């Protein structure tokens, strides 16, 4: 369970990106975060894993306030937060398998993956995940040889190898064509359900949010302006 309580972020520039966000994400729930550019979606996701330092409020993951953790605690907590990025953030010159294995190190350790030997059980689990996302034939291909949709599948497998509690997904489809975008959203939401993971998916395509998420939260100017089932979403957000 992830609980965000009165979260604020004021950037050094004075931008008030989050103005007191409170929401609770129960275990297993898939939430889409929508809103216009500049609404604060990225800032919210990045505050949860502390790529951005919150200015105020609390973020509790299974009871632990992430905003109060020191470096070691934060490293541990981040293993429970699986990140999936718009631009994939793959290691381009490494293979698909090496990229997925880097998930074991948490994203702070991505660069170290080529230098490490991983236990066979990690390799087996990575292979199972690659089968599940449909990339078993690409295990030894270099990341820079893949299409956008294939790269995002690698990103998904990498996040899942971390064995996270929560998936934090930042605009996963913004660089993809519409058909591939739907496939990727389907894959992320199905895998979250299969594994009982909660997910926050930052997506500004409202139709995709409605099609795949069970709950939609609308942000505008750093505030929640909608929180409910996708069917209740009017065009007002
Ligand atoms: P998106 O809407 O896809 O999140 P943005 O164009 O808002 O993309 O932001 C792109 C990058 O620039 C992000 O890393 C964001 O943190 C940073 N950024 C956005 N707005 C500002 C700003 N006013 N000053 C400095 N950096 C910014
Ligand atoms: P979204 O993801 O919804 O497009 P962002 O979280 O990127 O929104 O941005 C929210 C607000 O914070 C915007 O006004 C943006 O300009 C500002 N912002 C984002 N990143 C930075 C940054 N690194 N420095 C200063 N302002 C930023």
TrEMBL record:
Q: Which GO terms describe its molecular function?
A: ABC-type phosphonate transporter activity; ATP binding; ATP hydrolysis activity
Per the UniProt record, which residue ranges are transmembrane? Answer: none
This protein's UniProt keywords: ATP-binding, Cell membrane, Membrane, Nucleotide-binding, Translocase, Transport
Residues annotated as domain ABC transporter:
2-237
Query: In the UniProt record, which is one GO cellular component term?
Result: membrane
- The name this protein carries in UniProt is Phosphonate ABC transporter, ATPase subunit
The scientific name of the source species is Truepera radiovictrix (strain DSM 17093 / CIP 108686 / LMG 22925 / RQ-24)
> Lineage from the top down?
Bacteria, Thermotogati, Deinococcota, Deinococci, Trueperales
């Amino acid at each position: 369970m992830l609980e965000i309580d009165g979260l604020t972020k004021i950037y050094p520039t004075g931008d008030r990106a989050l103005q007191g966000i409170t929401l609770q994400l129960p275990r297993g729930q898939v939430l889409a975060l929508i809103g216009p550019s500049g609404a604060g979606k990225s800032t919210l996701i990045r505050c949860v894993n502390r790529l951005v330092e919150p200015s105020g409020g609390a973020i509790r993951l299974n009871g632990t306030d992430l905003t109060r953790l020191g470096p070691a605690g934060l490293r541990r907590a981040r293993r429970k937060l699986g990140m999936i990025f718009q631009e994939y953030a793959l290691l381009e010159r490494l293979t698909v398998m090496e990229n997925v294995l880097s998930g074991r190190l948490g994203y702070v350790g991505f660069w170290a993956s080529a230098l490490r030997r991983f236990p066979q059980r990690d390799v087996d689990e990575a292979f199972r995940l690659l089968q599940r996302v449909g990339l078993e034939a690409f295990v030894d291909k270099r990341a820079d040889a893949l299409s956008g949709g294939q790269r995002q599948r690698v990103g998904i497998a990498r996040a899942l190898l971390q064995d996270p509690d929560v998936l934090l997904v930042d605009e996963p489809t913004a660089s993809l064509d519409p058909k591939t975008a739907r496939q990727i959203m389907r894959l992320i939401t199905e895998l979250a359900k299969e594994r009982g993971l909660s997910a926050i998916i930052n997506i500004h395509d409202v139709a995709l949010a409605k099609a795949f998420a069970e709950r939609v939260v609308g942000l505008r100017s750093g505030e929640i302006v909608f929180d409910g089932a996708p069917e209740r979403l009017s065009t007002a957000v």
